[in-house]
Amino acid sequence: MREWAVVVGAGGVIGTKIVEMLLDHDLTVVAVGRTRAALTPLAHDGAAVVECPADISTDASIDAIRSCVAGPLRMAVNAAAAPMGGPVLDVTPEVVSAALEVKVNGTLRLVHAVEDRLVEDSRIVALGGNLGYDPIPDASTAGVGNAALANLIRQLSQALGPRKATCHVVAPGPVWTARLQDLIGNAAHARGVAESVVIDEFRTRSPIGHLVTIDEVVWGVELLLAPEARSLAGGTLLLDAGQRTATP
């Protein structure tokens, strides 16, 4: 029987690449996004994509996703992006709550949606980030959301382990996307410096001077498809180019 995958945030730049990777593995992919317009390009050339317009920050997404998955689940990925926020003394509780709704409660909703389709070596994967362990001043909500997400994944791993399904966080460092460029632009404007100064600061946090690429994040997710990845159950795959000062 053909296996299935679910990608939440499928219309984003990283989510789109994850969908393409899963299609290359001959999986039928349920692509979840807030609007159908963002998902339609994924179904080109007869690709095995099921469009699922749904907002993972609401409980209605549970039934919407559940109704789209029609076979055994190989992998479910929460790649939805949450608000970055700003300095912790400036950010509002509402923005923090919005980030938790996407990252933490969104992952929990995804599990509820696919739980009946889990089989041995099913994978639940959430994209987090190194800011959950090494926060920076300009992205407080990302730090809070990703730290809570790692704890949720550990708990889900314990709960789903007896069913031989495993749960994982893929936590990249700063990924060179339009989202990061916006963060850099805002930080540069607030400090009155050139964007190149902020970019250099991001690079120097890595001992190898590297900003993570989208392809590297997708590689981390693809790695978890291997049967051997069951030994990573409940863990965080940290793709931060050596930035870590705290251990996940």
Which labels suit this protein?
single chain; 248 residues; alpha/beta; Rossmann fold; 2 domains; seven-stranded parallel sheet; 8 helices; 7 strands; 17% strand
What is shown here, in short?
The protein is of the alpha/beta class and 248 residues long.
Molecular structure report:
The chain has 248 residues and is of the alpha/beta class. The chain has two domains: 4-175 and 212-239, NAD(P)-binding Rossmann-like Domain (Rossmann fold), CATH 3.40.50.720; 176-211, no CATH class. It has helices at residues 13-24, 36-39, 60-66, 93-114, 140-160, 178-191, 195-204, 214-223; strands at residues 4-8, 28-33, 49-53, 73-78, 118-127, 166-172, 236-239. α4 links the parallel β4 (73-78) and β5 (118-127). The longest helix has 22 residues, at 93-114. The chain is globular.
Low-confidence stretches: none
Helicity level: 40-55%
Largest sheet: 7 strands, parallel
Average predicted confidence as pLDDT: 90
CATH homologous superfamily heading of the largest domain: NAD(P)-binding Rossmann-like Domain
Count of the separate structural domains? 2
- N- to C-terminal distance: 37 Å
- CATH architectural label of the largest domain: 3-Layer(aba) Sandwich
Topology:
Layout (H helix, E strand, L loop, with lengths): L3 E5 L4 H12 L3 E6 L2 H4 L9 E5 L6 H7 L6 E6 L14 H22 L3 E10 L12 H21 L5 E7 L5 H14 L3 H10 L9 H10 L12 E4 L9
Parallel strand pairs: 1-2, 1-4, 2-3, 4-5, 5-6, 6-7
Helix pairs in contact: 1-8, 3-4, 4-5, 6-7
